[in-house]
Design goal:
It is a single chain. The chain is an alpha/beta fold and 454 residues long. The protein folds into two domains: 103 residues, Urease, subunit C, domain 1 (Roll); 316 residues, TIM Barrel (Alpha-Beta Barrel). Helices cover 39% and strands 17% of the residues. The strands form six sheets. A six-stranded mixed sheet has the order 3-2-7-20-21-22, with no helix packed on it. Strands 15-16-17-18-19 form a five-stranded parallel sheet. A four-stranded mixed sheet has the order 5-4-1-6, with helices on one face. The longest helix is centred in the C-terminal third of the chain and has 24 residues. The protein is globular. The N terminus is likely disordered. The protein binds zinc ion. The site of zinc ion has 4 residues, from loops.
């Protein structure tokens, strides 16, 4: 029975219910609260108690709800959004200018998770380039409350055909290399025993270097995963593979197809089956720039975030890479990128469940940076800023089965950012992070910044 029904029928019960509501220990008033709740409502104020959102409403309502004794923050027109969620990262490989397998330590992974948090991302789903026990230990320590950073979700070792996993010597030997259905099922069984949060597969031929993962094998992975209550998401390149993966019951595509614009039939199938899709445009977009992109200029709040948290030689290397880019090559990249933009616009218009994924953690595609560039890429491709925000909040939480996160509705965790400007006016404003709260407790951002060493 809903509370409203109780109130309508029994006034006395209603008042008892109200007094039993959680205590409010923090109220934020006089702002714009973008709740990203089911109704996409905008409020002026939010009340927090016990680490959770207690109520959202007008400043007057929240002031009344807060009563005396609680802390009150006057937002003075600033904007509150839920903390952001990244569904496709590869932590642990970059340390300053180096990018190599030996960097994959607890310290490097935590450096990435701390930077993600500094940039407003409270959750990072790693996508399958994970060796050893490091990631599992971090996840356990975070769950126990003894370790900070963005909350890490793991996929463990991803699954592909021989030599078909993640490219390059840095990642060699990490993925499962399967050739039979029995191996496919055994890999999933091992991952289930490790309680991974999701299963990752690589399906394409990795630019001709490897065999494709055959439909029989990925069907076995999907079937075994679903039997064990695990969702399976796929790295995909070719349109033909995406069509069959959707047919086969894949839960998510962590890239759009890149050889063709997505057909109406494929998009309709994605929508019908509720498959989640990463835009994953920010990495290929980098190849389209000749000279510094806007986010490396002082007018963009990104440059400040980078200067605060990234070694100057890494920023210099990014600038040098853009500076020496061949205009002809960039022209080709722009044509390929335009295909992605058209597909994303079609997906969005059709109501597909797009979730923010940026392949974060590729070289110089740093945690926090990549995700904010992805938000901008989605908006530039035709999504409204509100739609882009949904991909990184409520829908990302839904995808990752984080029922208590992703919006600022009553009962949800009080994980939120206070922004100096409204991202619904310009998604770039999501980079103007003034304050951040996790579980209702303010993060000491200067102290967090001091922990980011590489
Ligand atoms: Zn990836």
């Amino acid at each position: 029975m809903s509370k409203r029904m109780i109130c309508g029928a029994f006034v006395l019960v209603c008042s008892v219910t109200a007094s039993a509501q959680p205590r409010v220990d923090l109220a934020l008033i006089n702002g714009t609260v973008i709740t990203v709740d089911a109704g996409n409502s905008i409020a002026q104020a939010v009340a927090i108690g016990g680490g959770k959102v207690v109520a959202v409403g007008t400043t007057a309502e929240i002031k009344a709800r807060a009563g005396r004794g609680g802390r009150v923050i006057d937002l003075a027109g600033k904007t509150v959004i839920p903390a952001l969620i990244s569904t496709h990262g590869h932590p642990g490989f970059q340390r300053g200018l180096t990018y190599e397998a030996s960097n994959f330590t607890r310290e490097t992974v935590m450096n990435d998770l701390n930077r993600a948090l500094y940039f407003g991302f409270s959750v990072v789903q790693s996508q399958g380039i994970e060796s050893g026990e490091v990631m599992y230990q971090i996840r356990a320590d975070q769950a126990a409350g003894t370790l900070g950073g963005a909350r890490l979700l793991v996929a463990g070792r991803g699954i592909g055909a021989p030599n078909a996993g993640p490219g390059g010597p840095t990642y060699a030997g990490i993925a499962y290399e399967i050739t039979t259905e029995a191996e496919a099922r055994r890999a999933v069984e091992e991952l289930a025993a490790k309680k991974v949060d999701i299963v990752k597969i690589w399906v394409d031929d990795r630019n001709g270097r490897a065999p494709r993962l055959s439909p029989a094998l990925y069907r076995a992975v999907i079937d075994e995963g679903h039997k064990r209550g695990l969702r399976v998401n796929a790295h995909v390149f070719y349109h033909v593979d995406a069509v069959d993966l959707v047919e086969a019951g894949i839960d998510g595509l962590v890239h759009m197809v890149r050889d063709l614009e997505m057909s109406d039939a494929l998009i309709a199938a994605i929508v019908k089956r509720g498959v989640y899709v990463n835009g994953n445009m920010s990495s290929p977009r980098r190849a389209t720039h000749v000279g510094n992109p806007p986010w490396l200029t002082p007018a963009d709040p990104m440059l400040r975030l980078l200067k605060e948290s990234v070694a100057p030689e890494v920023i210099a290397r990014m600038e040098a890479a853009f500076g020496k880019r061949d205009p002809k090559a960039a022209g080709g990249a722009r044509q390929r990128y335009a295909i992605l933009e058209r597909s994303l616009a079609k997906l969005s218009a059709a109501g597909a469940k797009v979730v923010l994924g940026a392949d974060t953690g590729l070289e110089d595609h740093l945690f926090g940076l990549a995700e904010h560039l992805e938000l901008q890429a989605m908006a530039d491709a035709g999504m409204t800023p509100a739609q882009a925000l949904v991909t990184a909040t409520s829908r990302a939480a839904e995808y990752l089965h984080l029922a208590d996160r992703g919006s600022l509705a009553p009962g949800k965790r009080a994980d939120f950012l206070v922004l100096d400007a409204n991202p619904l006016e310009n998604i770039v404003n999501a980079r103007k992070i003034g304050r951040m709260f996790i579980n209702g407790v303010e993060i000491d951002r200067p102290a967090l910044r001091a922990q980011i060493k590489y």
